[in-house]
Amino acid sequence: MKTLNALIGATALAALSLFSASAGAAGYPERQITMVVPFAAGGPTDTVARLVAESMSKDLGQQIVVENVGGAGGTLGAGRVAKAQADGYTILLHHIGMATSATLYRKLAYDTLKDFDYVGLVTDVPMTIVARKDMEATDLKGLVDYAKANKDKVTVANAGIGAASHLCGMLFMSSIQTPLVTVPYKGTGPAMTDLLGGQVDIMCDQTTNTTKQIQGGTIKAYAVTSAERLDVLKDLPTVKEAGMPDMSVGIWHGVYVPKGTPKEATEKLTKSLKVALKDQNVAARFAELGTKPSSDSDATPEALKAKLEGEIARWKPVIQAAGQYAD
C-alpha cells in the first residue's frame, strides 16, 4: 500500500511539474532574458547580437540583455547555455564556430547536437581576404603566389582558435595547399590593430569587422567570399571572380536554447526573431556591415538544425587536414 501511495504521489508531482512548466511557458516571457554571446564585446558577432536583441526586446515586451562570455573559441559561452535551466530565459547567439568546435576541440563540456534546441538562423556574413596596406600583391592571384613563395615567413592573423578569422584562415591555406605562419590573438581588435600596423601580413575576417577599414584604405582587400559582390564594397571581386571558388564561405549565425526548453517558449523566440529580422533598422545596419537578415524560411529551428549538421560535416576534413586542434 505504501508503495502504491508513493507511486501515486510521484505521478501527481510529475504531472504538477509538467503543468507548471506549461503554464509558465504560456506566459513567457515574464522577465528579462539573457542572450549569451560567446565572444568579446565589440566584435562582429557581438554587433549582430546587440542589433537583434534590441529589436526582439521590443517585440517580446521584455528586455534581452547581451552577456559576453568569451574564451576557448566560443565553447565557454556555449557550454554555459547548454547547462542553463531550460526555461527560455538563457539563450545563445553563436556563429559558424558552433559547428566547427565539434571537430576543433578534442574535449567539449557539451554535445553540440544533443544539448541544444534551435530557434533560427540570423544572418550569413561574408568574409573578406585582406592584407596589410603595403602588401606587394595587387590581386588575389598575386597574393597567393606571394604566400606560396614566402610560406615560412608570411603571417596569417586570427582572433583566436575557433574564431571566424581562424576558420577562414585555415580554409585559405587549405585552398592554396600551403601552410603559412598562423598568429592567434585574443580577439578581433588586437588582430586588426596589428594588421593595420603592418606587424602581420594577411587576415580573413567578416565584413562586419573589415568593411570600414577597406573603405578607408587602411588595409588592402583582395576578395569577398560571397557568391555576389556587395553593395558596400562594389569594387571588391568575389573569390570566384578572383579564381578561388573553393573559398566561398559565410559566417552564419544562429540562436539556440538549452535542450528541453518548452516548445511554447521556443516558438515565441522564433516568431520574435523573424520580427527582428524584418526590422528596417536591423536590415539597414546589417547592410552597412555587408550582410543581410536571414529569410523567413531560414529563421526557423528546422533550417538552423540542418545548417549545423551540414556544416559539421563540411568543416571536419578541413580542420583535420590543418591539424590545428585545441584541448
TrEMBL record:
Could you tell me the keywords of this UniProt record?
Signal
Q: Name one Pfam family in it.
A: TctC
Specify the superkingdom. Answer: Bacteria
Query: Which positions make up the signal peptide?
Result: 1-25
Q: Which InterPro entries match?
A: BUG, Bug_dom1
Annotated family = Belongs to the UPF0065 (bug) family.
- In its UniProt entry, what is this protein called? Extracellular solute-binding protein
